[in-house]
Amino acid sequence: MAGAVQTTIAREDVERLKARELLHLARLLDVPMSARSIRREWLIDSIMDEIINRDLVPAHKELHTPAINIKGLKKKYGRTLAVSDLDLQVNPGEIVGLVGPNGAGKSTTLRVLTGIIRPTAGEVFVNGHDMLNDPLVAKESIGYIPERPTCYPSLTVREYVMFVARIYDVPGPVAIVRMRAFVDLFHMQPYLDTYIGTLSKGNLQRTLLIGIFTRIPPYVLALDEPIYGLDPRGAWNLKAHLRRLKAEGSAILISTHILQVAADLCDRFIIMNEGSVVGSGTLDELMSVNSGARNLEEVFLALTGGIPEE
């Protein structure tokens, strides 16, 4: 199921559930379980009978175009100008890379986009909603992974994911099925009942991703260094899933200084240096205006201080 926009719950999704999850799902669907012993196959059949008769998954909704729209963004901290006159759009079905050296203004841009801090000037729209004038609706429309993730330390991974699902009105049966799909995808089964406060950075990152993906796509996503902290398998699975989401119509903005990640995933790039945009476009477009550059790394170096001599 991971990566698929579905209009119902498929049998294979239910068959993937662990016994505890299967029983929870049956209770949510009011499946009668009065017998002393219940065969798994019978329980799955009964659950599927209930699912067929219910409209559990909301209808697929298209995102607004552009799904992310930043106009004339300026952010100052005292006398320091962190972001200057930034215009940025991300459309549905697109992954855009916000790249730049440390301190370029990337994380500040994402924190303004997600409503964590207010801009000094400019406008921010998420899925057509004004982040300044309608912040609750705008924030409901975006999923965010910060560079330094934090979460509720006294919740287990399972409790956190189901908590997020309730906040976003994901029906309980759908949340159980989607949680299992992404727990499997990110290999988090050993940690599902572990307290979040004890997790490593990589497993905390996975937990936040599962929380986002338990919601029903398409998504508007703002991901700040999403690969950092993940092991090679986790990074591979995340990149593959982001590509699936893009194909299904999600709009994804990735901030990173790891150029290989950007080159692997992104359709367009916005290159920042010292708070300003110094280049934007597809890789071919960027290389065409930076003569001699053969790849994203050389474009990046040319625009942020020049390619060092060998």
Report on the structure:
The structure is a single chain. The chain has 310 residues and is an alpha/beta fold. Among the domains are: 11-54; 68-149 and 257-304, P-loop containing nucleotide triphosphate hydrolases (Rossmann fold). The chain is built from twelve helices and ten strands. It has helices at residues 11-15, 19-28, 40-52, 106-113, 135-140, 157-167, 172-185, 201-213, 232-248, 259-265, 283-288, 296-303, and strands at residues 68-77, 80-90, 94-99, 121-126, 129-130, 143-145, 220-224, 251-256, 268-273, 276-281. Strands 6-7-8-3-9-10 form a six-stranded mixed β-sheet, with helices on both faces. It has a four-stranded antiparallel β-sheet with strand order 2-1-4-5. Strand 9 (268-273) and strand 10 form a beta hairpin. The N and C termini lie far apart (49 Å). The model is unreliable at 1-5 (pLDDT under 50).
What topology emerges from the helices and strands here?
Blueprint: H1 11-15, H2 19-28, H3 40-52, E1 68-77, E2 80-90, E3 94-99, H4 106-113, E4 121-126, E5 129-130, H5 135-140, E6 143-145, H6 157-167, H7 172-185, H8 201-213, E7 220-224, H9 232-248, E8 251-256, H10 259-265, E9 268-273, E10 276-281, H11 283-288, H12 296-303
Helix pairs in contact: 2-3, 2-7, 6-7, 6-8, 7-8
| Overall pLDDT metric | 91
Order of helices and strands: HHHEEEHEEHEHHHEHEHEEHH
The CATH architecture of the domain at 68-149 and 257-304 can be named as 3-Layer(aba) Sandwich
Radius of gyration: 21 Å
Summarize the structure.
The protein has 310 residues and is an alpha/beta fold.
